[in-house]
């Protein structure tokens, strides 16, 4: 039954796309005949949230999704997390799950494999209070809570970063590597540097909270009539109405 429903959804999606593109082509042809050149003006058709057949991105009501990021397919982004400018998260071959209060920085790339030869799940799982800093790349890996992935670092398939660990900037975590909790690793390939102090791990959590405050300021820059759809489109509360959150508890920063 599940297979039949999936086939039906993909068939309806394909027909809808065909009709939409046919209508667009006819509109352009009619404009050309009437010498209306407005259709020639280049307009951005970028969509920061893009379903892939029956795989629909989901996020919480107080998640910040930047206007020019790209989130495709089976992706879940938790409460008070942020996906910053230019980030690409592809849940096309496998699922991507991002926890609460997590920051996905500018130009970050998160992708998945269909499967791994080791039998390890090929999805990407990112915990709570995680910082994935600008330009980093994650590929079918597991990131536990309170981890920091440094600028332009790469975490390859099957790797696992345990709680509170830090990967230094411009580092590469090889496939299948386990990074123990509370340690700093850096280099290409990564090597152990030292153990982290509790105060350093707590500081990383504070940075995540500051990122949330910054996200609120960025959200205020969008006119309410233009960004209201960001609070409703494909949100987890809409997809799972039985789990809807009391709107009276919504932080005022995120109300529109």
From TrEMBL:
Gene3D superfamilies named among the record's database cross-references: Hexapeptide repeat proteins
Disordered: annotated span: 237-256
Superkingdom of this protein's organism: Eukaryota
Compositional bias annotation for Polar residues: 237-248
CDD domains reported in the protein's UniProt record: LbH_gamma_CA_like (cd04645)
Protein name stated in the entry: Trimeric LpxA-like protein
Organism whose genome encodes this protein: Pseudocohnilembus persalinus (Ciliate)
